[in-house]
Amino acid sequence: MKFSSVLLFAPLAAAIWPLPSSYSSGDGVLWIGPNVDVTYNPPSTNHSADYASNSSSGAAWSQIIVQKAIHRTYETLFTQNFVPWKFHPRNEDFEPPTGNQTFISSIVLEQTAVDPENVLRPLAGDVDESYDLSLTSAGTAKITAKTSIGLVRGMTTFAQLFFQHSSGGVYTTLAPVTISDSPKFPHRGLNMDVSRNYFPVFEIKKMIDSMAFTKFNRLHLHITDAQSWPLEIPALPELSAKGKYCPGCVYTSEDVSDIQLYGALQGIEVYLEIDMPGHTSSIHFSHPELVAAFNVQPDWDTYAAEPPSGTLKLNDSAVDDFLDTLLGDLLPRLAPYAAYFHTGGDEVNQNAYLLDETVQSNDTDVLQPLIQDFVDANHARVRAAGLTPVVWEEMLLFWNVTMGDDVVVQTWQSNEAVVDTVKRGHKVLVGNYNFWYLDCGKGQWLDFNPGDSSAQYWPYADYCSPRKSWRLMYSLDPLDGVPANATDLVLGGECHIWAEQTDPVNIDTMVWPRACAAAEVLWSGPKDAEGQNRSQVEASPRLSEMRERLVARGVGAEPIQMPFCTMNGTQCAL
Ligand SMILES: *[C@@H]1O[C@H](CO)[C@@H](O)[C@H](O)[C@H]1NC(C)=O
Ligand SMILES: *[C@@H]1O[C@H](CO)[C@@H](O)[C@H](O)[C@H]1NC(C)=O
Ligand SMILES: *[C@@H]1O[C@H](CO)[C@@H](O)[C@H](O)[C@H]1NC(C)=O
Ligand SMILES: *[C@@H]1O[C@H](CO)[C@@H](O)[C@H](O)[C@H]1NC(C)=O
Ligand SMILES: *[C@@H]1O[C@H](CO)[C@@H](O)[C@H](O)[C@H]1NC(C)=O
Ligand SMILES: *[C@@H]1O[C@H](CO)[C@@H](O)[C@H](O)[C@H]1NC(C)=O
Ligand SMILES: *[C@@H]1O[C@H](CO)[C@@H](O)[C@H](O)[C@H]1NC(C)=O
Ligand SMILES: *[C@@H]1O[C@H](CO)[C@@H](O)[C@H](O)[C@H]1NC(C)=O
Ligand SMILES: *[C@@H]1O[C@H](CO)[C@@H](O)[C@H](O)[C@H]1NC(C)=O
């Protein structure tokens, strides 16, 4: 209480998002210029030659990871910064005088251990992301971390200490600074649907940049669905040739590797999902023989959650052969830059199998063994490629599929699903749609059948209305109801941007800055050092500031308040 009331009257909240584990700062002014001396001290090793030459060692990548992070830090500080007038009373001269400047002389980046070999494709927790940061009043900065990715996280924090001066130059008012920081959860992700609408490669990279800036570390690409198949599979070129939305609306093998490496070098693992056996209607465009119940009209909703209906046949050796070819081609190409592969499994519609001539039943007793076989076969393929399977919660919680305890279960329907999953001994990702679905609240996109009265659908809400505000997102506790002896099974979670009503025009606004709320819950944890819920009073101006930082980086993040509210303390408290 006391802590937050101090902050209420400090016009500029501590800038950093997500909040570090431990953080102290002063009120000294320091300037920073592009000629600041930056040195990287890699860990001492008896294999130092690895750093220059051996591309299969983690050590060789460390140099590249850190060099790129230094470059991004420069860009953030000197070309993508902002003047923080929104956080000071109007007409106040809030900027430090430009005479007698003390400049930061050096930034030392010290890595104390060799990066693990799988630094570009870690399982949750394999890469230590912790770091210590100090900035003295005299102007020397040091970031220490066990890994290159820890240094990346530390540099991200460092960049958030600084502001643009309106007459040129870049400064902090927070010296001296001491930070010790590490993430609460090892899997901090965004699930991005790039099938229902197509997003060019550069949009996905832009998303990765913003995610790294808020210390996310997983981008889950939901890359195929019922509506389009943008993923090129060289062994099955007809899939994207016929299933893509438009010429060029594809992700080539090179695109996928390029996106993955781009993410990995920022400590963001990009992993793919092929959702199946439902959500596969787009396979029909090239392989009608493999898909049952395709695009039933008008009562598609008997057979699927969304048009066009359709599912892979469940008892057909041709489907099995097809998946052998598909995954045999795809998975080895993903493995250099990912530890996971998501085999989907949500919203399997029983009735679709009434129209599947290999099954002709919607009885769960008939379907369950077929689903079990389907998952077993896919997971064997995933493991054979050296990857770890991820599935949607229904496979475990509805279909009772028996799966290896390596399998990560992604929950979405409730907090209880998290508890039920850990009780069955599985690792779990949170993402309750009542909190972390970024697509909700835009209203109904489904049209009406001619002759139906549209009035019956008034006021035209969508399935998960209302919109989830950052405050609601911030209130999700990933460990809600989880027994103390099972908290380690909660790897973290993902927020979700489904793309029925999102395309490159509005993606920034749909995701940012609200995803920051999930990023902070996952990095800092939902509770403060005293075990209380984190204060939204403290978070609100800090998120407004983070939004300004995103905008300065060219991200169309929406405002969460008016400047009137952020300019002078508590004027907008209810
Ligand atoms: C290198 O190896 C030698 C001999 O095994 C050992 O004494 C030394 O401590 C090692 N140095 C480092 C930096 O690990
Ligand atoms: C490269 O590094 C890896 C992992 O550190 C090591 O196993 C391998 O022997 C090294 N290769 C060469 C040619 O030095
Ligand atoms: C800021 O708020 C305080 C407390 O409400 C008030 O006394 C002061 O006049 C305000 N200053 C400005 C510039 O609005
Ligand atoms: C210049 O700044 C230094 C360090 O902040 C301070 O000690 C010194 O008094 C200042 N000198 C003048 C002339 O303001
Ligand atoms: C699956 O197909 C085989 C023939 O290929 C058939 O014998 C079997 O009854 C089918 N299973 C179900 C559950 O329909
Ligand atoms: C299964 O299909 C029958 C019609 O064949 C239908 O009455 C029943 O509701 C369906 N069961 C489910 C679970 O949808
Ligand atoms: C899964 O198990 C539960 C509890 O035993 C049972 O009620 C449910 O019917 C099973 N689901 C299926 C699809 O077999
Ligand atoms: C803390 O947050 C949870 C929701 O995550 C809520 O149920 C609870 O009431 C909050 N506790 C307090 C003291 O506000
Ligand atoms: C946690 O404790 C409960 C009750 O003692 C036990 O049934 C359960 O297996 C334990 N779970 C784990 C993940 O250890």
UniProtKB/TrEMBL annotation:
Residue ranges occupied by any Glycoside hydrolase family 20 catalytic domain in the UniProt entry: 185-525
The keyword Lipoprotein is annotated on this UniProt entry: no
Active site per the UniProt annotation: E347
Protein name in UniProt: Beta-hexosaminidase
Entry keyword rRNA-binding: no
GO cellular component: membrane
Sequence ranges assigned to domain Beta-hexosaminidase eukaryotic type N-terminal in this UniProt record: 16-161
Keywords carried by this UniProt record: Glycoprotein, Glycosidase, Hydrolase, Signal
Family: Belongs to the glycosyl hydrolase 20 family.
GO biological process: carbohydrate metabolic process; glycosaminoglycan metabolic process
Catalyzed chemical reaction(s): Hydrolysis of terminal non-reducing N-acetyl-D-hexosamine residues in N-acetyl-beta-D-hexosaminides
Top-tier EC class: hydrolase
GO MF, one example: beta-N-acetylglucosaminidase activity
InterPro entries according to UniProt: Beta_hexosaminidase_sua/sub, GH, Glyco_hydro_20_cat, Hex-like_dom2, HEX_eukaryotic_N
The enzyme's E.C. designation: 3.2.1.52
Stretch forming the signal peptide: 1-15
